[in-house]
Write a structure and sequence with these properties.
This protein is of the alpha/beta class. 28% of the residues lie in helices and 19% in strands. The chain has one domain: Alkaline Phosphatase, subunit A, CATH 3.40.720. Strands 3-8-1-11-14-2-15 form a seven-stranded mixed sheet, sandwiched between helices.
């Protein structure tokens, strides 16, 4: 009760308006495959004016990390507040309700306290045999495409492609027999030609309805709007491609695997190989790399414009002053660094994400912090910001509330971030401090098998050119002691 009163008092004193006495609304803006390739994060090549403007309204976390660098598990960690290692939900095809039938998602938790919870676009992962979690929201999910083409040549004349089949749960046993779709296309179409434009428009409609409902019934909203670009394929209207000059976009600084890194930590090919004209083996020469990088930045600018439509509508409707807004990327993305593309690793580019939190009456404008943050922190943070009790739910809540940092960006609530990634029969669990990342690759079912370790020093070696485990035994020992305090990981479900 004490923190609820403190929150309400802060809101009231800061805004001086009676709306602060009611529960704040919550708007989650979720972006697939978005690393901090944004102007506000210092990327001089990015064109992201709307997300940059949003960052000026609240707190931007400069050292935020996902808990697993792949779509479905990352979204489970967001909505459950629990690590993959606590739930066993490591895979794209993991079914939440089969593994944890009584789990209470963040949206369900808010619904228990009078919120109307709605979802649009990509919130949970749907595809690869996964159906998401329809019961997490009170109204039917507004679903749209992830893999989308408008140019016939992109799909060999309109054929069902491999990734389209995977993301629509079609022909899952025949994927290799299907053609590859194009890695990028740039038709002259309006924003609504692709899913993100339609999701933005529908989100605005939901906000208008939520405003009317609030006026009549005082029902606060919890709306999660998920956008799919810059997820592959880089399908975006041509005008967003034209805003970038591929010749000026940078290729990766370090295109080699880290020296002395264990083989289990490395990746080649993978998701990128599902798209033409990428060679089946995944080796990408500079000309194609520039086209792919161009596509990533164009797609990011496109999704930025859609987020701008939503945030402008929030202000136009008079909802901004009583709505908590969170911008979150589900994981990072390799753009040829370490010779790796896409995600699915424990390296920096796959795991560092953008997190921005705007909480009227609590956050100051344009604040940045070096507080290490994790995806699992968002659930307890939003609960506290909304004045709700600390979540006591069937699953473990592995996150911590970031509210002290939102009030004072120099405050600290944790000294490291945790993430993990499975590879074969081994699990790589990682500790990321402000300077170092320590990774342990271990088969937890067979203690007789060898264990591999990695240590990266981001002050001395920001591009991960070398595994420093052997050279810095004292640092490795200290970080291993932190990792050893974590519970034994659950096996994959």
């Amino acid at each position: 009760m004490k923190r609820i009163l403190i929150f309400s008092t802060i809101l009231f004193l800061s805004s001086g308006e009676l709306h602060a006495l009611s529960k704040p609304n919550v708007l989650l803006l979720l972006v697939d495959d978005l690393k901090p390739a944004m102007g506000c994060y210092g990327d001089k090549h990015a064109i992201t004016p709307h997300m940059d403007t949003l960052s000026k309204r609240g707190v931007r976390f400069n050292l935020a990390y996902c808990n697993q660098a792949v779509c479905a598990p990352s979204r489970f960690t967001l909505m459950l507040g629990a690590h993959s290692t606590s739930t066993g939900l490591y895979g794209l095809g993991s079914h939440l309700r089969q593994v944890m039938p009584n789990a209470v998602t963040m949206s369900q938790y808010f619904s228990q306290f009078g919120y109307r919870a709605e979802s649009l676009g990509k919130v949970f992962h749907i595809g690869h045999g996964n159906l998401g979690d329809p019961q997490a929201f009170e109204v039917p999910h507004f679903h749209d495409k992830v893999i989308e083409y408008l140019v016939p040549e992109s799909t060999d004349g309109g054929k069902l492609t491999r990734e389209e089949a995977l993301f629509t749960n079609q022909k899952l046993g025949q994927i290799r027999s299907l053609p590859r779709g194009a890695a990028f296309e740039a038709p002259v179409v309006n924003d609504e030609g692709y899913a993100d434009g339609r999701v933005a428009n529908e989100t605005i409609k939901r906000l208008k309805a939520a405003k009317e409902r609030r006026a009549k019934e005082d029902t606060p909203f919890f709306i999660a709007a998920g956008f799919v670009r810059p997820h592959l394929p880089f399908s975006a209207p041509k005008r967003y491609w034209d805003m970038h000059d591929s010749a000026k976009l940078p290729l990766a600084d370090n295109k080699s695997f880290p020296k002395n890194a264990p083989r289990v930590a490395l990746k080649s090919g993978g998701e990128i190989s599902a798209f033409k004209p990428v060679p089946p083996g995944g080796k990408i020469e500079d000309d194609l790399a520039r086209k792919l990088i161009h596509g990533y930045y164009a797609s990011t600018t496109y999704v930025d414009a859609q987020i701008g439509k939503v945030t402008r509508a929030l202000e136009r409707l008079g909802l901004a002053e009583n709505t908590i807004v969170v911008l979150w990327g589900d994981h990072g993305w390799h753009l040829g660094d370490l010779s790796i593309w896409t995600k699915h690793t424990n390296f920096e580019q796959a795991n560092r994400i953008p997190i921005m939190i705007i909480a009227p009456g609590v956050t100051k404008k344009g604040v940045t912090t070096k507080q290490l943050a994790e995806t699992v922190d968002i659930f307890p943070t939003l609960a506290e910001l909304a004045g709700l009790p600390e979540p006591k739910v069937p699953q473990s809540i592995d996150g911590v509330s970031l509210v002290p940092v939102l009030i004072d960006p120099l405050a600290r609530v944790r000294d490291h971030a945790f993430h993990a990634y499975p590879r074969g029969r081994r699990l790589g669990r990682a500790i990321r401090t402000e300077r170092y990342r320590f990774v342990e690759w271990k088969n937890h079912s067979d203690a007789t098998l060898p264990v591999d370790y990695e240590l990266y020093d981001y002050e001395a070696d920001p591009w991960e050119t070398q595994n420093h485990y052997a050279a810095k035994p004292d640092v490795a020992k200290k970080l291993k002691a932190i990792l050893d305090k974590y519970p034994a990981p659950k096996t994959r479900k």
